[in-house]
Amino acid sequence: MYLPCLTRSYRQTGPMKKYTYPIYSVSRGRLLGILLLIVGSLAAAQDGNPLLQGLYSEAQAARGALAYGENCASCHANDLRGNSNSPALTGLSFLFLWEGRDLAELFTRLSTDMPTDRPGSLPTDTYLDLLAFLLQHNGYPASTASLDMARLAGEPVTIVPPPQ
Ligand code: HEC
């Protein structure tokens, strides 16, 4: 009478132990899945960033290069690396300050404060050209369409590192 009972209870603990293990491993699997999803969507957000797809035209950046030489290079240098008085507009130090911020904010900064000796004195289109040149110089790809005020006022564009 006792023997089958014992066997049964032994058999019950067996499957029960086995049952708890899969639950544990499934939740760990789910956790991993969620993590992968987060990492994946972050990567997708980077891929989908308009800056990496091209947000200015070559012609715009070429005009910007000329305007930069005339209005900005005296302080920020021809290679955009700045000097002891003026900050660099390229490279890691620039990215350190601007990564994660809105491109429109950068535009406002240069179009209202620059050149420091006559702030906001250039036409809006010239400031757009200058921003295009800064983007090109920093390694962001060009597109066929030009960057305009409507685009800057629209969906925010987060500044991410340029493609390697
Ligand atoms: C007379 C010197 C001078 C000229 C000319 C000048 N800048 Fe500047 N620029 C500065 C200085 C100094 C700063 C930092 C202090 C400040 O923001 O006032 C600065 C800051 C900047 C910043 C912000 C950089 C940062 O990381 O915060 C941008 C962008 C910029 N300049 C772009 C331009 C552009 C584009 C032009 C040409 C239209 C230009 N500057 C002309 C001196 C100058």
Short note summarizing the structure:
This protein is mainly alpha-helical and 164 residues long. Helices cover 65% and strands 0% of the residues.
Q: Which short descriptors sum up this protein?
A:
164 residues; Cytochrome Bc1 Complex, Chain D, domain 2; binds heme C; 0% strand; mainly alpha; 65% helix; 8 helices
Radius of gyration: 28 Å
CATH architecture field of the largest domain: Orthogonal Bundle
Number of folding domains?
2
Q: Using DSSP, what is the number of strands?
A: 0
CATH class of the largest domain: Mainly Alpha
Name of the CATH superfamily of the largest domain: Cytochrome c-like domain
Give a written overview of the molecule.
By secondary structure, the chain is an all-alpha fold. It folds into two domains: 1-47; 50-153, Cytochrome Bc1 Complex, Chain D, domain 2. It is built from eight helices and no strands. It is globular and about 60 Å long. Bound molecules: heme C. Heme C binds at residues 71-72, 74-76, 85-87, 89, 94, 97, 109-110, 113-117, 130.
SSE topology:
Elements: H1 2-47, H2 50-53, H3 58-71, H4 73-76, H5 91-98, H6 103-113, H7 124-137, H8 149-153
The structure holds heme C.
Heme C binds next to helix 4, helix 5 and helix 6.
